[in-house]
Amino acid sequence: MEKIKEDVLILGGGMAGLRAAIAAAEYNPKLSVGLVSKLYPLRSHSVSAEGGTSAVLNPKDSFDLHSYDTIKGSDYLGDQDAIEEFVRLVPEQIYTTDHWGCPWSRNPDGTISQRDFGALSFPRATFAADKTGFHVMQTLFSRAMKYNIHFYNEYFATKLILNGGQLNSVTTIDLRTGNFVVFQGKALIFAMGGAGRLYQFATYAHSVTGDGDGIAYRAGIPLKDMEFIQFHPTGLVPSGILITEAARSEGGYLLNSKKERFMGTYAPHKFETASRDVVSRAIMWEIEAGRGVKGEYGDMEYVYLDMRHIADKLDERLPMITEIAKKFNGIDAHTELVPVHPATHYTMGGIDSNVKTTTSVPGVFVAGENACVSIHGANRLGSNSTNECLALGNVAGIAAAEWAVSHSVPDLDVAQVNDEEKRIWEDMLKRDGGENIAKIREDLRINMDKNVGVFRTADPLRNSLKNIAALKERYEKITIQDKADTFNLELEWAFEVGFMLDLAEIITAGALQRTESRGAHYRRDFPDRDDANFMKHTIATYSKDGPVLTYRPVVVTKWQPTVRSY
Ligand SMILES: Cc1cc2nc3c(=O)[nH]c(=O)nc-3n(C[C@H](O)[C@H](O)[C@H](O)COP(=O)(O)OP(=O)(O)OC[C@H]3O[C@@H](n4cnc5c(N)ncnc54)[C@H](O)[C@@H]3O)c2cc1C
């Protein structure tokens, strides 16, 4: 067993993790900062962020407007104190990354350009064409090279070990060698991203499997609001690759099979730029009403995204999605219609946290999609995640560095570490029940798409819980056929699927108990929002018999819940 100690330990090398690492290193250059990632950082999912990052830069815009848009977008489930503080932290991050070399798109006068995005009342999405994530990640990664940051790339974290409720260590497998490596830090930051790949039709990278949520949950750190999963209206059919919301905010239309522009029926003011939950449901209702397109892409019905009338903008402002439509579907978006269908896109829930990025364990912080602050409540606004990664990644980095300065690394809990090592080599790798991990994963995803999707009802949700229980039993009987030490992906999948099964159970249980419709959580059997009973966050805590759900009131400062329409 190899042991590595750092002052600040960060799990995750995406936008939140990298931003946190830079902040910790800048706070005190004498601190050692270790960043552990199952992927090379520039392969993290963040590189695929497309359309933009909301920030109040224009004097005609305001923090109150950004807060209000976010709160209304959240369907009043976001904590308003956290949102008000968050929006004030963002502009500095845009200017800082600009100074570090991020090629933000500019206006002719040289100022940073901003565009409209779904459900914004002011065009505040700062962007780098439609490759925002790619450019921000390149900027952060090259900046990180300046500091004393140790990168542990392709190390897979399996477990957080606490001792008496205090941070002790994190166990990992070095994927290149198969070595079992234990990390210790004076402070720890979770920045391990979302969990969207527990659905089949998704815009996410295949690596986004909720490991961070799963690891924290099993260690006893509560998760919050996991039933709120975002479905983005325009996943390209049949691959699910994202066609950015900017395609609609730049003027693209949605058309049904009759070539009617239908969004006016569902969002008479905002049309295609209503919030994502509203547009996704509208597409599904059109399909259910028989106005979906049955075409050349298998069973999935879809609607069209029409960008022909904005063809002159495609090459400059939307080059990536134009290329994606061409490469993956052979479609020229300048002259042809693009097939789209709602796809899983964002995990509003995550590790229970706040705008200071703390968790229930002292010295353990969380940032990015792994966290539930709650800024996004029941529905995240497009362009409100990358800014969270930057702003709260920075907060987490500073907070962890402050903590590390006045704390020491505890003695290693050798007994628990040994148990984890045994679990991997003597349990997981030696199970021999013949079940195939890829098949269990596929069945889980099909179950989630079918039973816990855009529309939810009690019976399918109950079926989902039964299916997950059966899948958990099958999971106990897996056979990992690959016994190799190096890059044993089957073993990695086994860990990921283990986390996904826990999370699927929490999502479904939370969705079943929330007998109302709010944001992305739409119950056909309870179609109205129920503020009297559900202005509260769902907190899921681990027990060996399944998640224990409790509730906590939403913080309201000055925006009382009202009817939400676009
Ligand atoms: C296609 C797409 C486009 C998007 N476009 C936008 C946009 O334009 N604007 C916007 O605001 N938001 C956008 N989003 C959302 C946004 O991109 C993400 O929420 C954000 O990038 C997440 O960053 P992160 O750092 O939290 O996680 P990630 O970038 O997912 O990074 C997670 C890190 O954790 C590591 N990790 C995970 N598990 C383990 C493990 N077991 N062991 C070790 N390391 C592990 C990974 O290696 C990775 O480095 C988009 C999302 C999608 C799907």
Describe, in plain words, how this protein is organized in 3D.
This protein is an alpha/beta fold and 566 residues long. Among the domains are: 2-70 and 85-193 and 206-222 and 353-370 and 381-405, FAD/NAD(P)-binding domain (3-Layer(bba) Sandwich); 229-345, Alpha-Beta Complex (Flavocytochrome C3, Chain A, domain 1), CATH 3.90.700. Helix content is 36%, strand content 19%. The chain contains 16 helices and 21 strands. The strands form 5 sheets. Strands 1, 2, 6, 7, 8, 9 and 16 form a 7-stranded mixed β-sheet that branches. A hairpin with a 4-residue loop joins strand 8 (166-174) and strand 9. The longest helix has 25 residues, at 489-513. The chain starts with a strand and ends in a 13-residue tail after the last strand. The relative contact order is 0.17. The mean pLDDT is 97. The structure holds flavin-adenine dinucleotide. The site of flavin-adenine dinucleotide (FAD) has 44 residues, from helix 1, strand 2, helix 4, strand 7 and helix 5.
TL;DR?
This protein has helices at 15-27, 63-73, 80-99, 132-144, 211-218, 246-249, 263-266, 276-291, 311-317, 319-329, 386-405, 414-428, 437-451, 458-475, 489-513, 531-534; strands at residues 2-11, 33-37, 53-54, 114-115, 125-126, 149-153, 155-163, 166-174, 179-190, 223-224, 229-236, 253-255, 303-306, 338-347, 350-352, 364-366, 371-372, 455-456, 522-523, 536-541, 548-553.
